[in-house]
Amino acid sequence: MLVAFSVTPLGVGDSVGDLVAEAVRVVRASGLPHRTDAMFTTVEGEWDEVMAVVKQAVDAVAAKAPRVSVSLKADVRPGVTDALTAKVEHIERALRE
Question: What family does the database annotate (predicted)?
Fold first, then answer.
């Protein structure tokens, strides 16, 4: 599965980048395939392992913020692997045609 999620600390002022980095640090340490962009971090793996990483990322931010907002979108496709890369490659191929 792919899970794209965003963790936003609330009640800590206007600048939240350092706390968001704590969530990304958790994802990177997980060893799961992932990609971070300006809006979301996408993680690929099995349901339980991906959701455990999302929870750990939220917990890391919640340890330093009084409130945390989480946005999450999941693509559940049993038996599919490397979707993180394959989906983008498919679009790039279509754009070249």
Answer: Belongs to the UPF0045 family.
Ordered DSSP codes for 45-62: S-HHHHHHHHHHHHHHHH
CA distances from 67 to 4, 24, 49, 90, 91 (A): 20, 18, 24, 38, 37
pLDDT digits (tens, 9 = 90+) for 22-59: 999 999 999 999 999 999 999 999 999 999 999 999 99
Give the pLDDT of residue 12.
Answer: 87
Q: Phi and psi (nearest 5°) for 18?
A: -65, -35
* Structural domains in the chain plus CATH codes: 2-96 (3.30.70.930)
Determine how many CB atoms are found less than 10 A away from the CB of residue 55. 13
Looking at residue 86, its pLDDT comes to 87
